[in-house]
Design brief:
By secondary structure, this protein is an alpha/beta fold. It is built from five helices and nine strands. The strands form two sheets. The chain has a seven-stranded mixed beta sheet, sandwiched between helices. A two-stranded antiparallel sheet has the order 1-2. β3, α2 and β4 form a beta-alpha-beta unit. α1 packs parallel to α2 and α4 packs parallel to α5. The longest helix has 14 residues. The radius of gyration is 15 Å and the shape is globular.
Length: 198
């Protein structure tokens, strides 16, 4: 069976790289590796989400499937009086995210290995962000939506990025069935940014 970036412990050989990206006007440096999502550069969908997301300076934020950290670390810079919890099932991604927080001197983060939202199910957040692991299958993605709803404070929002061809219409319908309000915030090159409010 071939490995995916949502494997718990990728065994693929290490292939470390340093990349630099401009995200929300800030230049960030990331260490990436084989066995993690979008290792050659921050993927376009994540960039569209980073540009679109709205966070108050004191927000408690959760980044689900954080990978090596671009969404969560960008969010942390937007919430100087808040905190971002970053979770991923992939041990290699979690270690990279921790190193990238240090590399960019970002302190208001907590980075935890978690199968979906298991390790944060007793916490509460103002905002949940995710570029969901589409290749893990619709059932997994929909469980992320359900579990995000459970950990959000009333009035809190889930922000997701999803491509139309990768199931945006069914994702939107699922979110509408769970959340009080679901809106498409923007779209860019086939990527949809959807905000669902509890």
């Amino acid at each position: 069976m071939s490995e995916h970036y949502y494997s718990q412990n990728p065994r693929v050989r290490h292939d470390l790289h340093i990349i630099e990206e401009m995200l929300r006007g800030k230049r960030l440096s990331f260490e990436t590796d084989a066995g993690v999502f979008s290792k050659k550069g921050v993927d376009y969908g994540s960039k569209v989400l980073i540009d679109a997301m709205e966070l108050s300076p004191d927000a408690e934020v959760l980044d689900v499937g954080c990978g090596y950290g671009p969404i969560g670390l960008s969010a942390a810079l937007m919430v100087p009086d808040g905190r971002v919890t970053m979770i991923d099932i992939n041990e290699r991604a979690v270690e990279l995210a921790k190193r990238n927080a240090e590399r960019n001197r970002i302190r208001n983060v907590r980075i935890v290995k978690s199968d979906l939202l298991a390790e944060v199910k007793d916490d509460e957040f103002d905002v949940v962000l995710t570029n969901p692991p589409i290749r893990a299958g619709k059932e997994t993605v929909h469980r992320i939506f359900e579990q995000a709803h459970d950990v959000l404070k009333p009035g809190g929002a889930l922000w997701i990025v999803i491509q139309k061809k990768q199931g945006a219409p069914s994702a939107f319908a699922k979110l509408e069935s769970i959340f009080r309000e679901t809106v498409e915030v923007t779209k860019d090159k086939g990527y949809r940014i959807i905000k669902a409010i509890k």
